[in-house]
Amino acid sequence: MLSHTGDLHRILPSSESKTPGYQSPGITPIIASENGTQIVNYTTAVIAGIEDDDSYTPNPIEIGVGQTIAWLNGDTISHTVTSGEDVDPYEGIMFDSGAVIPSQYYGLTFDAHGEFDYYCIYHPEMVGEITVE
Ligand SMILES: [Cu+2]
């Protein structure tokens, strides 16, 4: 569903420049915005693997306007967080993480109300939904 009208910012995890490695559950990731500002208030979601609508947990993800979601790839293979769905000609237009490798984070901040479907380009059966209240 394309009901989004506001700005959407891609958040770059600061760990992108470091050697990827396993992060134990409970370790707080450092998520930084494009201008380098550290995001301290975010909701963590997990990319669990190829599990249909349980692939991303929680599902749906419910957040408020202005809040950030940080997806952690908890699987052993790469996945994406891509707007839309497999047959949608607009897929990936609003956001597209590219390959998120295992143990790495991808973050997005949502500045407007809306409902957003997303999926994994590599495994289109992996689907999730974001609700911004
Ligand atoms: Cu995938």
Summarize this structure briefly.
With 133 residues, the chain is mostly beta strands.
> Structurally, how many domains make up the residues?
1
Tell the overall outline.
Answer: globular
Ligand types: copper (II) ion
CATH C-level name:
Mainly Beta
Order of helix and strand elements from N to C terminus: EEEEEEEEEEE
Distance between the termini: 15 Å
Order of strands in the sheet with most strands = 3-2-1-9-7-4-5
The secondary structure category is mainly beta
If you compute it from the alpha carbons, what radius of gyration comes out, rounded to the nearest whole angstrom? Answer: 14 Å
The overall average pLDDT, rounded, is 81
From the 3D coordinates, which CATH architecture would you assign? Sandwich
The amount of beta strand, in percent, is 35-45%
CATH H-level superfamily:
Cupredoxins -  blue copper proteins
